[in-house]
Amino acid sequence: MKFSDQILSWYQHNKRELPWRKGTSYQVFLSEVMLQQTQVKTVIPFFHRFLERFPNLSTLANSSLDEVYQVWQGLGYYHRARNMHKTAQIWSALGRDPRNYAEWIALPGVGPYTASILTAILLEHPAAAIDGNIKRILQRYFGLETIKEVKMVAENVLPSKNYGNYTQGLMDLGAMICTPKTPKCSMCPIAEFCKFKQGTWMPSKKAKNLKSVRYGHVYLCKKEDALWSVKNTESKLLKGLWGFPLSDLKEEEQSSYIEVPLTCLKGTVRHVFTHFILELRIWNATSRIEDVTSKWSNGKWLDFQQRKELGFSRLMRKIEEQENIWI
DNA sequence: AACTCGTGGGC
DNA sequence: TGCCCAAGAGT
């Protein structure tokens, strides 16, 4: 049996029931954006929450970007929220669904993978989507090294129909059987001719990435029940989200960034990002309200209830959670 | 072409 | 625990 037929046959009997399968084009699109670099299990609650707030394309297109950030908060990679909002407006103005790969990939936040899989699932046109799962399966099965080889093979093994099911079949196989660590080869429908299973191919080792630490300071100023809060419009990291006044980040530990005698250190917080570790010192800067509010002048006094209505990053929520202890 | 961009699952 | 890495895209 052909490679693609084995995948299709396995998928028919083993597919996962996921909330976006058999959904509208808008729902499938939303799921694909949320799933970029994010596990299915993490996405599911966010997916439902998002649809509750923005049930269809036009409600999203007509919303404000801040509302989108509010619903997206905690999911990470916030440029996705920004691009989704833009794409919704373009798509909504178009008045119909994109008709092919070129129209999909022209949209902000839609790259080669997302454009391919939407073309396959929604249009049933041939398109070789390559994500982490599919790359891993093809590399193992055919013993491939470079991404160039993977792309060629992916095109060559495409079926002649059922492109959506075939692609999702590969994804499910990658997520459930052909996992990165300890794949379940005994349950795999294509183990017989797999070069990895046969032991004739092994993945090349990756250089391990050493995560550097960056240091900074967060300043909490309290007035009655409110904390001085600012929206990040400057740095790309956590852009568009709200938080508390944050110093520039440095490679070395440093004394307080603003030149005032802050003596009331309340604690530290460590937060792990993809490419670095952030360590912040948290200050009670209430005695320096003037300094802080003039340096971060575009802020607001927000109480707990008001902050709940805005998009805060997980990092800032972590700090906020312990506010009562610290202040 | 590397870097940047979040957060949490899972082992 | 610390570490890899997840349905990648933009620059």
Summarize the structure in words.
Residues 34-176 form the HhH-GPD domain. Pfam families: EndIII_4Fe-2S, HhH-GPD, NUDIX_4. This is Adenine DNA glycosylase. The structure is a single chain. With 327 residues, this protein is an alpha+beta fold. It has 16 helices and 7 strands. Strands 2, 3, 4 and 7 form a 4-stranded antiparallel β-sheet that branches. Strands 1-6-5 form a 3-stranded mixed β-sheet, covered by helices on one side. β5 (265-272) and β6 (276-284) form a beta hairpin. The longest helix has 16 residues, at 79-94. The chain starts with a helix and ends with a helix. The model has no long low-confidence stretch (mean pLDDT 94). The structure holds a DNA duplex (11 and 11 nucleotides).
Features:
327 residues, alpha+beta, Endonuclease III, domain 1, Nucleoside Triphosphate Pyrophosphohydrolase, 2 domains, four-stranded antiparallel beta sheet, three-stranded mixed beta sheet, 7 strands, 12% strand, globular, DNA-binding
